[in-house]
Amino acid sequence: MQDGVPRVPLPMHPALADLVQLRTGAAYQVDRASLGLTLLAAPSHEGSWTAVVGAADLGIEAAAELGIDLTRTILVPDPGEQWVEATAALIDVVSVVLLRPPAAVPAHTANKLAARLRKRSSALVVWGDWPGAEARLRVLSSRWSGAEGGHGRLRSRQVRLGVQQGTSPERCAELWFPSAAGPVERVVDVAARVEVTA
Predict the structure, then answer these.
(1) Residue 34 CA neighbour count, 13 Å, CB half
(2) How many domains does the chain fold into?
(3) pTM above 0.85?
(4) In this structure, is residue 96 part of a structural domain?
(5) 31-63 per-residue burial string, b: 16 or more CB within 10 A, e: under 16
(6) By C-alpha distance, which of 18, 34, 22, 24 is closest to 2?
(7) Which of 56, 113, 150, 193 has its CA 20 to 30 A from that of 122?
């Protein structure tokens, strides 16, 4: 609870659950659309409504592959100068909003939306910089595999994910994103499964 408002935990993808916990009333910053969509996927899969604002080039098929239920997802690809109003209106009616701001966001705008998040018990995931974010997720490095000698198809990508909450040291984890078996898996989980079957 903060400011007298309960911070209700939202469903999380198992690969991210011990790194960050989405809670209502807070904003989270990501540096990739794929990270933002992964944060939306678990609440969407559990039946919550979600929204995406300002991401005109968003891959709808990729969103569905990550587990987002498109029948309960509101898309506002190009809100123009009305992006703050569009985001505020969606915060009123959905559990999680993914926002790609068109420019640098002033602190007073972030504070205005933060008050709305607390009042409506919603969460905001921002693809880009966001003043006062509860946590910041970023891809530190990535390596694709699958195309051998320049031939074949890219099958999986191993990424090093960094998560910073407040002034705490950044926590890191290795993920397959995507993995050969699904959209997101922890590297240690895959290694343990291979070891058991070997």
Answers:
(1) 14
(2) 2
(3) yes
(4) yes
(5) bbbbbbbbbbbbbbeeebbbbbbbbeebeeeeb
(6) 24
(7) 56
